Amino acid sequence: MTRYESLVARAPRMRGARALFTSRAGGEGPAPFDGLNLALHVGDDPAVVHRHRLALEAEVGVPVTYLDQVHSADVVVVRSGDDPRAVRTADAQVTRRTDVALAVMVADCLPVLLADGDAGVIAVAHAGRRGLLDGVLENTVAVMQQEGARPERLEVAIGPAICGACYEVPDRMREDAARTHPATAATTRWGTPGLDLRAGAVEVLRGQGIPAVNIRSDAPCTLEDGEFFSYRRASRTGRFAGVIRRSGSSRAQGDAGASRGDVRSA
Ligand SMILES: [Zn+2]
User: Fold this and answer.
1) Which end of the chain is more exposed for a tag (fewer CB within 10 A), N or C?
2) What is the pLDDT of residues 87-110, one digit of tens each?
3) Domains in the chain and their CATH numbers?
4) 224 CA from centroid of ligand 1 (Å)
């Protein structure tokens, strides 16, 4: 029993990959970062964040690559020989490697995990309003295809993110988004204009040829569920992560069990 035992909040099953979402659970540190904050850019104690990152690395068994996320539609590929500790500026990353895990950090934006278990290609994407509308998911699928993936085989897990009933935006912003992404148009619980980024993401992914049955988008709303960090709840807060690595490799022990679905998943 370690203090990090509950580090994995959710572990969606994906063929050929181990996928997980962290939450606030399992970390240390005072408010407003109380919990398993994984972000170095939010003002938290770097020593604490590094301990959290080491714990996550121990959990997944390989180095975890993070991005300098800037709400872009840019995708990078982690190729053999690349230093997994190098932090590149982008909002999605793709790899065929079995010895690294890919992460995105979020607090309301969508963490999207993708895998083609046959081709051995995995990806993570950070999709907020800007990235979603600018095509970060289309770009991610395109780069995965360049690496050998096929959309009809892709499995996708969309993690905890703010829901359409909570994400209030100005009317004009909803109109602009709906013009290109009709599914994003939503109404908040209190009757004002909203954006449903998850529905928008599903719409985009289906448009890329990914079967609806392969897309999971049933994770909780970050604003409603205090288990997760939410930027809308508190602008000064931490970030949790969506993480994926290829499984079935010979590198790390314990993979076989993990890839069968984590018993700690909710
Ligand atoms: Zn909500």
Assistant:
1) N
2) 999 999 999 999 999 999 999 999
3) 13-161+214-247 (3.60.140.10)
4) 5
